[in-house]
Amino acid sequence: MSFTSLGLSPAILKALSEKGYENPSPIQEQAIPAVLAGKDVMAAAQTGTGKTAGFTLPILEILSNGNKAKPNQARSLILTPTRELAAQIAVNVETYSKYLSLSSTVVFGGVKINPQMMRLRQGADIVIATPGRLLDLFNQKAIRFDQLEVLVLDEADRMLDMGFLRDIKKILSFLPKQRQNLLFSATFSDDIHDLARGLVNNPVEISVTPKNSATELVSQLVYPVDKKKKPELLTQLIKDNNWQQVLVFMKTKHGANKLTKILESADIKAAAIHGNKSQGARTKALANFKDGSISVLVATDIAARGIDIDQLPQVVNFELPNVPEDYVHRIGRTGRAGSSGHAVSLVSADEIDLLNDIQHVMQKFIPREVYEGFAPFNDLPESRKLRPIKAKRAKKTTSSFEHKDGQRSADNARGHKPKSKNPGHKVGSSPQNRTTRKPKPQDGGAKDPYSASR
Predict the structure, then answer these.
(1) Which residues contact 304 (CB under 8 A, 6 or more apart)?
(2) Is the dihedral of CA 82, 85, 86, 87 positive or negative?
(3) Spatial contact of 212 and 362, defined as CB atoms under 8 Å apart
(4) Rounded Cα distance, 40 and 63, in Å
(5) What is the C-alpha to C-alpha distance for residues 283 and 300, in angstroms, rounded to an integer?
(6) Degrees (nearest 5) of the Cα angle 318, 324, 325?
(7) What one-character DSSP code corresponds to residue 246?
(8) 188: Cβ contacts below 8 Å, ≥ 6 apart
(9) Long-range CB contacts (< 8 A, 24+ apart) of 272-277?
(10) Going from the N-terminus, what domains does the chain have, and what CATH number goes with each?
């Protein structure tokens, strides 16, 4: 099947042809007709399989046949968890709409808000945004959604992981009820299904790959190594294999900065990208990595969302992620657009549980190989046997604003006092100020002494 058979206009097809795209990926083949038919969609595909084009192409087709956006209005809203991903989607939209008379803009935090407000004054057919900055703009009346036709939640699982559920619900509350809703994500977690129940209506569910699986185009390998030897092994791997473009994943911002300095001291050009970096520094680091000015980009999981390089050959997990599904996202940075890739993980003995969790989620063992000269003093234990993944029981319905132990609610963080569950007690009041309840006369017969608090 080719793009010409999917019902896209000649203008879009011309833009695709200039980029060398002729045949849709499996996710695009299924999603584009469903979106063009006006249906709500929940689509899951491995990172790097073209899911972004799976929603941008049909949205461009739909919007090209309607009225232009009025001042401060948006006809389509695409929500993403990170600045890098928002910027990457904006580039794709601009590329595919090259021959269409549609306007688009991208808004995110970390930069001045006034230029974004100025652009929105003219209205935009497509707005790509991160949740926090979008709420700021809405509160300042810089954007309205009376003309909104399509809503997209991209990387919805990551938005939930990053704690954006409350923001998403606020945004949904001021959108028009009549709209088309699209959820696109690399994984389909149970939390995503819970969110979708109150969002999409009779959606077309698309999943072109097994849940939480990695593309077969990516070869995976584990190097057992002592934790203190990891920087030295990474340096050796880069030099021995002459890696010219490698993305290295770290857990923490501090760790990313520290590793970058170690690599630079070994005459390896490297840069770090994470949430503490300014937007300008992050954009510059990514641009230098893409054009080959630096060989190694050290990133945290959040910052790496949106890094889209068609032929990135190498990914290294310097540390395994705490969340097994993040491993799939990480190695999905390579092996994109039909190209092969290689993913290496440096695993110390204390990470065996993380490795077991990853292999359990993927339902496959990752091959191991001891690199010459780096045999670990503390042996990496054998992997546990793979157990079938059990279906999770349905969760009890709870308030969407309920917080787990150890978390502060947004209201509490702003200084508001939480309501007490016991109506007879007022939080923050002194015992002297509390009113004493007089017991009601009983009509006889034994009654539950705790009934008043139930």
Answers:
(1) 84, 247, 249, 273, 329, 330, 333
(2) positive
(3) yes
(4) 16
(5) 15
(6) 110
(7) E
(8) 42, 44, 157, 207, 211
(9) 272/297, 272/298, 272/299, 273/84, 273/297, 273/298, 273/299, 273/300, 273/303, 273/304, 274/299, 274/300, 274/302, 274/303, 275/300, 275/302, 275/303, 277/303
(10) 3-207 (3.40.50.300), 218-362 (3.40.50.300)
**Spatial separation of the C-alpha atoms in residues 350 and 381, rounded to whole Å:** 9
Q: Distance between CA 67 and CA 156 in Å, rounded?
A: 29
Q: Could you tell me the two tokens for 180?
A: 């088309």
Residue with tokens 């990387």: 155
The DSSP line for 254-309 is HHHHHHHHHHHHTT--EEEE-TTS-HHHHHHHHHHHHHTS-SEEEEEHHHHTT---
Instruction: In whole angstroms, give the CA distance from residue 24 to residue 54.
Output: 9
| Residue of 55, 75, 224, 50 whose CA lies nearest to 146 | 75
First to last CA, the chain: 62
Whether the model pTM is above 0.70: no
In Å, what is the CA distance from 175 to each residue of 73, 172, 185? 12, 5, 21
Q: How many Å apart are CA 313 and CA 296, to the nearest integer?
A: 12
SS3 (DSSP) at 14 = helix
Side-chain half-sphere CA neighbours of 113 within 13 A: 15
* Alpha-carbon torsion angle 235, 238, 241, 246, nearest 10: 160
Contact at 8 Å (CB) between 298 and 288? Answer: no
pLDDT per residue, tens digit, the chain (454 aa), is: 789 899 899 999 999 999 888 889 888 999 999 999 999 998 876 666 788 899 999 999 999 998 999 999 999 999 998 888 898 899 999 999 999 999 999 999 888 999 999 999 999 999 999 999 999 999 999 999 999 999 999 988 778 777 788 899 899 999 999 999 998 877 666 777 777 777 888 889 888 765 555 667 788 999 999 999 999 999 999 999 999 999 999 999 999 999 999 999 999 999 998 878 887 888 888 889 888 899 999 988 766 665 666 678 899 999 999 888 888 878 877 766 556 789 999 999 999 999 999 999 888 999 999 999 999 999 999 999 988 877 555 444 443 333 333 333 344 444 444 454 455 554 444 444 444 454 444 444 444 443 433 3
